[in-house]
Automatic annotation (TrEMBL):
Keywords: Aminoacyl-tRNA synthetase, ATP-binding, Ligase, Nucleotide-binding, Protein biosynthesis. It comes from Recurvomyces mirabilis. The lineage of its organism: Eukaryota, Fungi, Dikarya, Ascomycota, Pezizomycotina. CDD domains: TrpRS_core. Belongs to the class-I aminoacyl-tRNA synthetase family. It is an enzyme of class 6 (ligase). Its EC number is 6.1.1.2. PANTHER family: TRYPTOPHAN--TRNA LIGASE, MITOCHONDRIAL. PROSITE patterns: AA_TRNA_LIGASE_I. This is tryptophan--tRNA ligase. One of its GO terms (biological process) is mitochondrial tryptophanyl-tRNA aminoacylation. InterPro entries: aa-tRNA-synth_I_CS (IPR001412), aa-tRNA-synth_Ic (IPR002305), Rossmann-like_a/b/a_fold (IPR014729), Trp-tRNA-ligase (IPR002306), Trp-tRNA_synthetase (IPR050203). Pfam families: tRNA-synt_1b (PF00579). One of its GO terms (molecular function) is ATP binding.
Length: 318
């Protein structure tokens, strides 16, 4: 049977890139799933602390992000929704898998190179958990015997690495213990920034106008799209290299102004019901606590057999 696993960092309110690139697929996979398909979705708080976080802020973001997973339509009866740090097996497996992770491979990962580009001369500032980030991500998926991982395009390299780690482990210990998972890249694989259309939309960009949050009001969405960077070439075409701020063929003869109005109306229609559900859930602490407690228990149970098999294979226990 299929096991679907994916994760999102609770480092702020999820944006339209997260939604179109990943979260919307999660809900679709849930709704279309066969009865024997298992689904797990994690708020990866341990990944979040690979950059410095304010503790109070992080707690609030964990809560808001959990509420958002419910608001988009994930059902805790159907899926296991949990905070990564509630399930210590993730960290344990990560340590063991570190024995399969070459520092050369990790050093070539795009995310590491991008995040460290400015710190090259100052390795005192570069921390180990940012470097080993992909090993924890590999542990996340391998721990639950995941077969399919729905993500945006920026995560494809990390999952390639996870397959490498799984195959390496199986090879060394001579058994098919870990399952190399398939990557499911969503159709909207890379949603771009509104202010800098050659980069992806991201939670960490300093300009809040670069992204649309799933909690933004209609007016805010309209104003962000109105001020979005476009080029001044007439007509609308899709040429990613020459015109990264532009799109599609059935809009060929409309102006940028009309295009922006159409995009605003499509996006506000998509976001409004999510925002409203989020508003009604986010203050309900007892509901969110119940969901997190149930998710932690289910994920702990799901993780146990693989961790035991791995520890046996390595000679850490009988
Ligand atoms: P994160 O939190 O950066 O993003 C969550 C999901 O949103 C997708 N995404 C995008 N898709 C399209 N366009 C964008 N602009 C955009 N920005 C983000 C991401 O591809 C992702 O699917 N390392 C992961 C979290 C993680 C994980 C895992 C994922 C940890 N363990 C195991 C899958 C399996 C991350 O930082 O995602």
């Amino acid at each position: 049977h299929k096991v679907i696993f994916s994760g999102i960092q609770p480092t702020g309110v999820p944006h339209l890139g997260n939604y179109l690139g990943a979260l919307r697929q999660w809900v679709k996979l849930q709704n279309d799933a066969a009865p024997d398909t298992r689904l797990l979705f994690s708020l990866v708080d341990l990944h979040a602390i690979t950059v410095r976080q304010d503790p109070k802020q992080l707690l609030q973001w964990k809560n808001e992000s959990l509420a958002m997973l419910l608001a988009i339509g994930l059902d805790p009866k159907r899926c296991t929704i949990f905070h990564q740090s509630d399930v210590s097996a993730h960290s344990e497996l990560m340590w063991i898998l570190s024995g399969q992770a070459s520092t050369g491979y990790l050093g070539r990962m795009t995310q590491w190179k991008e995040k460290t580009a400015n710190e090259k001369e100052n390795s005192e500032k570069l921390k180990l958990n940012l470097f080993s980030y992909p090993v924890l991500q590999a542990a996340d998926v391998l721990l639950h015997r995941t077969t399919h991982v729905p993500v945006g395009h920026d995560q494809a390299q990390h999952l390639e690495f996870a397959r490498e780690v799984a195959n390496g482990f199986n090879h060394v210990y001579g058994q098919d213990i870990l399952i190399p998972p398939q990557t499911l890249v969503s159709p909207a694989k890379r949603v771009m920034s509104l202010t800098h259309p050659v980069s992806k939309m991201s939670k960490s960009h300093p300009n809040p106008k670069s992204r649309i949050l799933l909690t933004d009001s209609d007016e805010l969405i309209q104003s962000k799209i109105k001020s979005a960077v476009t080029d001044s070439i007439e007509g609308v075409t899709y040429e990613q290299d020459r015109r990264p701020g532009d799109l599609a063929a059935d809009l060929a003869n409309i102006s940028m102004r009309v295009l922006k109005e159409q995009v605003s109306s499509a996006v506000t229609k998509l976001v409004a019901p999510i925002r409203e559900r989020h508003e009604s859930i986010v203050g309900n602490e007892s509901l969110l606590d119940d969901v997190a407690t149930l998710g932690a228990a289910k994920a702990t149970e799901s993780a146990a057999p693989t961790l035991l098999q791995v520890k046996r294979a390595v000679g850490l226990c009988r």
